[in-house]
Design goal:
single chain, 99 residues, alpha+beta, 17% helix, 41% strand, globular, disordered C terminus
Length: 99
Amino acid sequence: MTETITGAVLHAIPPDELDEHDLEPRLRALADSRYVVVLRRGGHPSLLALISAFIRRDPIEAVTVVTDRRLEEDDEVTLTVEQTELAGVYVTAVSEPDA
């Protein structure tokens, strides 16, 4: 089943650097020669939203996405993804440019 995730890139690992990171073996195998990207779901929150989340003790939701698309830190993206058997890890189904 697919879902759409909009988020801000917190960290991106290009394919040629995968071996330099301590990735869980199943995630490393899933990534193979693709990018591993950690997204803050919902994008960059405003200062007011950050303060509100801190007071409510509502943590930032981060997800990991394996994609063929080159992404850089701080990019805002919308991705159509499919859940994997790994908790919190998705694989892109279709990538869409930002609106």
